[in-house]
Amino acid sequence: MGFELSLRLNYNHRVPEELASPINASTRICAVYGFPIKHSASPAMQNAAFAALGLNWRYIACEVAPENLRTAIEGAKATRLVGLNLTVPHKLLAVDFVDAFDESVKMWGAVNTIRIEGRDKNGTWLPIYQFTDVHPEKIRTHGFNTDAEAITRSLREDLNIEVAGSRVLLLGAGGAGRVAALKLAAENVGELFLVNRTHSKASAVAAEIRRRHLNVKIQVGYPRGEVDLCINATSMGLSPNDPLPVDNKQFSLRQAHAVYDMIYRPAETLFLQTAKAGGSRIANGLGMLLYQGAKALEIWSGQPAPIAIMRAALEKNIYGESTVQSPQSTVPKSNAVG
Ligand code: ATR
């Protein structure tokens, strides 16, 4: 998704020149493909990380129309890019265009990260950038999905929530909601309540979970009593005048100890403001964006991601110099599943 509706002139902050090594013939490239893509915060986050790790790499954003995705992936292979990220609308399409799958792609049915690899003379596949002097015998694209893991990592790091054994209310059964529900089930959530505007979609996700995770307790509808966590995975809140994604008459946010909104732009939706006023712990979806990117960087480079630097770069890019939100009228809006 990632609805990004308006322009802001100074939107894309640059990596300070003194931190990045100069571009030369050894500079290697990573890219994110999306449509649209111009408000992506990933270049700011990844270039800050490359500079911090001392890598002579750059990360760029490319607007790739869906009908050109296959060619664009083949182009990355031919030009030996280090790797790719894929965002809306390419994550499902790309499954058909990569040569090898990680388990995570089989699990989630979508690709958001590609590592480009070469085969050496012993038959071992290695990251393509390691072939500096010898030529690889063959080149392939290796697909991964880092989105689902990022959900549980963000819940843990940003809200101190361990999913296993928790009671959770999940709002939304679209693309993001489905992956979140399946991931929560895979992590042995104690009890999961699913609510969606279109009831049949919530029922379909519940049925899929019952098939795949026999022991997970799942219900469609609002819970009685308290929950450890309530998550918004709908698009309600991306626009300033959106109502709450939750029906106040059936569930009060005061019933939730912690509240998570996958939307990170604006930084505090009405949903999060209401939850905070009611005393719940809150976090927005910036952490999901951060951790999916951190894992992608680790897949490409084999090095631990500099999390604090990546988070600071994201906050600066999205919210400006401070973490205070910029005026609504000029800030594009996004959620973490774009
Ligand atoms: P994403 O990939 O971000 O999940 P999506 O698949 O289009 O995007 O899902 C959007 C989610 O927001 C869905 O849960 C959708 O509900 P429906 O399944 O009923 O469409 C929810 N949503 C969007 N607009 C909504 C609205 N006005 N009121 C309530 N829910 C809404």
Tell me what the structure shows.
The termini are close together. This protein is an alpha/beta fold. Strands 1, 2, 3, 4, 5, 6 and 7 form a 7-stranded mixed beta sheet that branches. It has a 6-stranded parallel beta sheet with strand order 10-9-8-11-12-14, sandwiched between helices. A two-stranded antiparallel ribbon has the order 13-15. It has helices at residues 42-53, 69-78, 103-108, 147-159, 175-186, 199-212, 270-277, 286-301, 307-319, and strands spanning 28-34, 57-63, 83-86, 100-101, 113-119, 125-127, 138-144, 167-171, 191-195, 217-220, 227-232, 256-261, 263-265, 281-284, 334-335. Mean pLDDT is 91; it is low at 1-13 and 324-331. Helix 5 links the parallel strand 8 (167-171) and strand 9 (191-195). 49% of the residues are buried. It is globular and about 65 Å long. It binds 2'-monophosphoadenosine-5'-diphosphate. The site of 2'-monophosphoadenosine-5'-diphosphate has 16 residues, from helix 5.
